Structure formats: structure tokens, C-alpha cells
## 1
Amino acid sequence: MTLLHLDHADTLQLPVTGDGPFDILHTLWKPSHYATGLEAHTPGTSWRTFRVGDLTTGVRLRYEDRTVIADIHTNGDYKPHHREHLKKRLNASYGLAEDTAAFTVLAEQVPAMREPLAAFAGMRQSCPEDHFEIAVIALLLQNTTISRTTTMTRNLLTHHGQLVHFDGITLRAWFSPAELAKVSADTLKERDRLGYRAKTLAEFPAFFIQHRSEDLRHENLVEVFQEIKGVGPYTAAVMNSHASRDPSAFGLDVWNRKILARRLFDAPDADATAITRRMNDLFPGHAGTAALYFVEHEYLNAPVAPLLDPDSIGAWNSALENTAA
DNA sequence: AGCCAGGTAATCC
DNA sequence: GGATTACATGGC
């Protein structure tokens, strides 16, 4: 796998137009998220790759005066429509225009939410992935351990994605639906170790080539998503809450079910329907945001993929460049 | 050894 | 409809 060097092409100033406080650190970096190599975070700077059609972009993100400053690096011909796409993509991915007041009013009434709210005031949902990419992530999370999810993600991105270097950082980048379409189900199973997921992942490209992320905006999305083989209620809810940014949606799995059971009922586990009912009662229209705050608070003091010390970026780069060999 | 993971679809009644 | 089961793989 070759290391693709990206050159600086643009700087975008993206104002935070949503109301209330803005927690830039926990909006860009989520303590509960497993390591993918698609992004890297230090306390003051984040780097992330985005696929924009055939273009591969590397973005450095910083924050100053209620503005996200995005330095765009690319491998090819950077056109005005790429700039417009990235502006919208970044604005949506990190909820820069989203208001928090409605959730905050509800959250302040719930004692269990007191600490998460204090720790994360102004945190938005983060989803740099588009619908295709988040569907792949959610598929890899189904009924397995994070250890194996991480392995499968690494295999897929190493074998079928890209490795890029820009602004001193090395990162992985996604494959597009068209690129994944060229990979056989047999390869996904034997080489990428996907098990029974191989057959369903092999059918993802057809749907996402037909349904571009920008076009997935109409109603009944949860039902449309579940037309994809391998996408059930959980994965569809993850797509809806993350890529479509529906603040009322959350995908309930055995992991967050136990976290929410503790927070809501002070019990080690609870019935899924009881949890769903309670979340919707306490946070009508904002249960997904509430679940996000509870889950991230669980990992605040023991992040799955901790922040990088700026001095350790060299080691980060070496590690990624060696796994690609 | 067996059980269980950040589920889903097929098949039963 | 709701309940039950197979499905790949790997860590504990």
C-alpha cells in the first residue's frame, strides 16, 4: 500500500452558528470511540480524512473565536464544488449550526444527567462518516467484541482504503462504494476476516451507489435503510442518529443498554423496551443526544482511544505506516 | 471448553 | 406478531 501525500489546497473558516456553549474537544473527539486510524486528536488540534467523490482530503481542524478553522489537503484537482461540499460536510458532521437549548432544558431536569452535562456542555454528536461509511462501522459492531471490530476495520481500510500523509500526520482514508464494489465476498471473508458479514458487506455498494448520502434526507429513512441486507433496527438507528443527525434516534445494543440501565435504573442491565420508554419520557425528541452524553461520560476518565501527546505523533505515524506494509 | 460480544434474518408457531 | 436459532470469529 502506497503512502499518498496530500498538499494544502484551502482554508475554511466555519463559524459555529448554533446557540449556547460549544465543546470543541468532545465534539471532534469522542472518548468512547474505538481506534480506526481515520482520525487523530491532540488537545488543541484534530486531523481527519474525508472522501469527497474521487477526491481524498485530509483536514486539520482547530478552533478559535467560535470558529472552526479547517485546513484542507488534497491529492488532486481541487474545484469550487469540492469546497462547497466540504463546507456542508464539516458543518453537518460536527453540528456547528445545531442548537442545544432544547436538550439542555430537558437535561437540567434529570439528576442523572447533572454530571454529564457539566462535563460536556456544548458537545455535539460527531459523525464525519457519510451514510455508507457509518453503515460499514455499525455492521462491524454487530454482535462482536470491540477488539474484533477494530481488527476488521483495520483489515478493510488497510486492504481496500488508502494511507495518506499531510500536515505531518499519517492517517487512513475510506474506500468509496465503487471501490468496495470491486472486492469479492470471498476476499472480505478470507482476507479481511469478516465472517458472515462478508456476504452482507458485499451488497452494501449497490445500495449506496444508488442512494448518495446527500439524497438520503426524506422521511421513513429507518425503513429505507432496513431494505439493505444486514441492516436491522440497530444499524438503521445508528445511521439515522449519526449520519442523518436525528437527535431523537439511538441504536440500542448490549453495550449502551447496560450503561443506560445503570444511569436510569441504577441496575446492571434492563429490558430494552423499558430503557427506550424511559429515555423518550425523560428526553422527548432528544433521547439520542441524552444517550450520547451518558455513554461518553462513562468513558471520560478512561477513553478507548486517548488523546495523543503532540510529541508522540512520530510514533503514531510509524505505527500506521508499518501496518500498511 | 464453552460462552459471549456495541445484531440480523429466517423460520417457527 | 412474538419466540427461537444459526450465523463467523476471537478473546477470556
## 2
Amino acid sequence: MLDDRKLAVLRAIVEDYVSTNEPVGSKALAERHNLKVSPATVRNDMAALEEEGYITQPHTSAGRVPTDKGYRLFVDRLSQVKPLSAAERRAIETFLAGAVDLDDVVTRTVRLLAQLTRQVAVVQYPTLTRSTVRHVELVPLTDRRVMLVLITNTGRVEQRVVELPEVVEDTRIAHLRAVLNACLDGCGLSAVPELVADLPERLPAEDRPAVATILSVLLETLVERHDEKIVFAGAANLAGADFTTGLRAVLEALEEQVVLMRLLGETSGDTPSALTVRIGSENPYLHGTSIVATGYGSGDNQLARLGVLGPTRMDYPVTMGAVRAVARYVSQILAAS
Amino acid sequence: MLDDRKLAVLRAIVEDYVSTNEPVGSKALAERHNLKVSPATVRNDMAALEEEGYITQPHTSAGRVPTDKGYRLFVDRLSQVKPLSAAERRAIETFLAGAVDLDDVVTRTVRLLAQLTRQVAVVQYPTLTRSTVRHVELVPLTDRRVMLVLITNTGRVEQRVVELPEVVEDTRIAHLRAVLNACLDGCGLSAVPELVADLPERLPAEDRPAVATILSVLLETLVERHDEKIVFAGAANLAGADFTTGLRAVLEALEEQVVLMRLLGETSGDTPSALTVRIGSENPYLHGTSIVATGYGSGDNQLARLGVLGPTRMDYPVTMGAVRAVARYVSQILAAS
DNA sequence: GTCTAGCACTCTGTGTTCCCGAGTGCCAAG
DNA sequence: CTTGGCACTCGGGAACACAGAGTGCTAGAC
């Protein structure tokens, strides 16, 4: 059905269209890529490709434009991820190395990715549920208030002010802190609920109301921030591009955590560390856009996802290269800290 | 020079232009606002207003459009801040009351303001330098590493991992924590540097290298996060508007903390709690945009600034009302926590 | 003096027409 | 199977006319 030359034609169409943003015609195509055949032959191939749904023409007597299906074939079989230049890799490394804490790592990553790809970059905060407890701290503020601070191995810090049901002395708070740490240090966050389940019973009855309150806030913290937080950068890169769905819709989606979460999250398949590409109508919302995403985190411990969002007409090989590289570097950084 | 009727004409021009986005002519104006004079008279007044530079016409034989100077006069003398409806006030209150921590307060505030004004909202994080130390925590991670956590009275938490120059026992860490807290609890952050200046000398010589390291990280934390952090929301509201300076430039400015900082910061005058309005070319960058901003924080203790950014052609009375109201509510929330 | 009515003038935006050129599909010959 | 030739289609730009909204000006009315 599709011989090698037809595939070469499709590849050429995608490449030309991506770089010029204009429907590409048979003549220009036969000239610029040395296909060694005449425009007429190319036209025949194009007709076949259109028949199969890989390309389409905006109107009669215009050049051809790839369809979503065409991009899909291109990404799957006709292109290979383009590695970054040595200079770019060095730049990434030094830029990320300067981060002081988790917030900073995420902020730098998202900016870096946006700049590198000239698209909108999206980074999900490392998931709490997969990380482990490094330390739990209870800080007495007044005699009825303590601050609960949860520090994870990814450098994330969650804090909440807890209003106690009764006055509790500092020494008992200190004891409670010791018990909590003994119980939770190094445990996975997802294991926390069952680990603390019988904690009230193992303590003196007088402490139970306070403990119950503190634990409920702790558990609330775990579920609330689950993996909700996503940041983006590079919105300015949208200014030029034209989206079928409208610029406004894209910007709205970016500011809506839930939508963004689904766009990013649903790309996650069996192997989260693999590069995933969703093209145009393959996306749940935002049909006019494509998303290139991948998981990051050390080795088998995939923490979260990052990627970029852009118009369907994007340079997939380059974008995929950048996303993959940034994910690797940020994984390294997180593993080291 | 400008009698009452001319001012009324200017006001009417601004109001009509803001709501229709089309140059307003003498006839329509005389009809819609009951000025009790004929279009011809209005034309004479318009000629005078144009002479003085308050309005201009895009081209001969088009209606008039306010200039920056015209908006300025409108804001200063011809309009009054429009208070929110009771329903809106209630909505603000309940929405902000649900915030769990400082991050949440800021996030909710910026979204609320964006939604309320249908513009881009900008909120600066409460300044560290004006807040006070609530607690300093030192958490031993390994024998050469501690985590330094600084909690302020505004609910802000800063944390840093400190690499110690030598092994330090936990008991000495605990002692150091006690000393630090005794020294700093309740003090203004700006006072911290001098308060800790002589701390190493008051401790045993053996502790000094570790203390010096910890203190340097602490001081670094204070200056680094000074008042840098600014968040925005509502970029989608830019989609419709047209900026003389270009949408791209606006989006870039929004993502550039430094620029945003200057836009927001330089509106701060002698009385930070007052509403400030910068119109069009009055802005340092982004000449096509206007900014309505104000300080927030409890009473005389102004913590930071918030505001909105939009096209010069915006509904100033409504926007100013929303900004003022949100600033008040968020100040309340912060004072209460 | 100030306001009003009338009038001639000047634009922009829109709709129409026309034409060029790029690109196609098809066919017959190599 | 490939190629050259040819007639056909259609979008986009240029040229043009025209209606409508708005203005400035001047002469008259209160």
C-alpha cells in the first residue's frame, strides 16, 4: 500500500510544512528534497496518501497538509528523536544545578523547557504518594496551636497550622513528635494512613484527642496535595501560533489544574518513563494542540510528569529530544539531593 | 478652560468607548447620554477637548477616542470607585476563607481577582523583610546535614538543606536550635542579620564552624527570597483584547518576575495602601497597558502589593473597586492567621 | 455670547469584479 | 510505472465604487 517512496514523500511534506507553515505542493517538494522523480509522480503518491487519510488539502488547488494521522505515522515510523547539541546539554546542566530547593528545581525546569522548545512547558510537582517521609516536625506556636511540618525525601515541605482541641504541654508535643518520627521515618507516603491507624491506641488516653486532630490534618495534607500541582511557563510562545480551538481555550486550560492534569496524566501508560506524544484530536480537550510528555524521577521510581504543549504543527523530533533530555537531567538532580 | 459640560462630555466618551470599543461620535453621544444639547454643540466641546489633548480621532471623520491624558483625568476627577455588590463580597469572603496556608491564600487571591475583573491579576508574595520570625527549626538529616526551616508570622515557610563542615551531634543541634529561637523568636526579619552577628562568639569554639555555616545559609535565605516572588492568573483574559505593544510582549512581561516587579513595585508611593493607577504610557514597559494596584497587609504593616493589568481601555471604576475590595479581604485573612 | 441647524467634505470599511498564479487531476506516450 | 502536457479550480491581491458615519464651518436663533 505505502511503499518507501510514498513514506519519503509524507516525511518531506511534514518537514516542509512544519518549517514553512504553508501547504506544500508537488513541484516544490520534488525540487527541495532530491526525490529523483518528477512532480507528476509525486502527485500520484500524494493522491494515494490523501486517499489513506495521511494528508489533506485545505481547498482544491492548494498544496497538501498533514492530518493528525499523518503526523502520527511520521512520529512513529518516519522520524527519530533529535538529540541536543553539546552546548545545549551543558546549558541545561549548569542551569539546573543552581537550584536551591524543590520549588526552584521545578521553576527552573519549566522555564528551561519552555525556552528550549519555544513552546509552553508543563511540569507536574513530584508526587507525594510515591515519595517517602524524611521527617515530621511539630512546632508549638501557642498552647493550643502547633505547626505540623512534613518533609519528604524529594525536598518537599508541607506545613499546616493545627488547632488543638485542648491545651497540650510542650513536653508532650515533643514526645509525640518522637513517636511520629519513629513510626514514619523513611516510609512511603502511601503507607502513612495505615501506619498511623492504631497510633492513638498506643498512647496515653489523655493524649488521644490531640493526636487524633493532628493525624487528621496530616492525612488531609497527604490527599489534598496529592499530585495536583502543575506549573507552566512560556505562554508567550503561544502568541504567534494559531490554534483551531482558539488561543483563549488553550490559556484557560493551562490555568485550570484539573484539565492540565488530565492532559498530562493521561499520557501516562504502562511505561511512564517513555516519551508519549498526543497529536491533535488524540487529546481529550484542546484538539488543535499536541502534547509531548514523559515521566521523570530516578529509575523505577517515577515521581511525576513533564512535557510541552504546542500546535499540532510542531517540530516533533526536536521537541521530543528536548523533553527527553530535560527529564533525564531533572531526574538526576532530584536523585542527587 | 474646561467647563462642567466639557467634562461631562469627556466622561461620556470614556464610558461609551470602554463599553463599545468603537470611536464615539457626537450624534450617538448626544442621544445616549441626556446632555440636553445638540450634536453640534457636543462637536464644539469635542474640538476643545481634542485641542487640550484629552481625546483624539484615529483618522479624520471617525469618532473620538480618549488619550492616556483623557483616561487620567477621568480616573482622577470624573469617576468614583465602584463598590462591589453584596453577593460579590460574600463570594470573596467565602472563597478566601477556605485557604489552608499562605500559598493557598495567594493562589486563591490571584484567581479571584482575575475572575472578578476579567483581566490579568498579579499578586506579590508577602515581603519577608517586614514579617517576623515565628520559629526556626533545625532538623538533623544525617550527621553532616541538617534542614533549616524558617517559619514566619505570615505563615510562610522557607527551608534549606545545610551541609555542615563537620560532624555535629544531635544534642548540639538541639542546643543550637534553642539558642537560635531564644535569640530570634518574634523579631523582624530585617533585624535578623545584626541579631545573629555575635552569635558564634557566644558559643563554644567547637561549634563555631557549624554555626557559621548555618547562619550564612539563613542570611542567604533572607536576601534571596526578599520580595521576588510574584504570581499571575487570568492570562486567558488577554486573548480578546488587542494591545498596541503586542500580546506576546505582555505575556513575556508576565513571566518575567523582574519586569512584573517593577510594574507593580513602582506604583508604590508614599502611601502604599492607596489605589494606584498607571495608564498606558505612564508605565515603564508595556505602554499599551494599564495597571491598577494597591498594597495589602494589616494596617500600617504593608506586606506586599497586588493588582491587575489590562488594556488601557478598561473599566476603571469597576476594576478599582475589585482591587480595593480584594486587598482588604486578603489583608483581613492574613491578619487573622 | 452661546447654542443650533444645515451643508459640504473627508474618510474608512465593505462589497464587487477581475485576474494571476499555484496547484491539481487526468490522459496519453515513453 | 513514470513522465510531460493540458485544462480546470480556486484563493488571494489589486482596483474600484459606494454608502455611511462623522467632522468643521458658517449663518442664523435665543
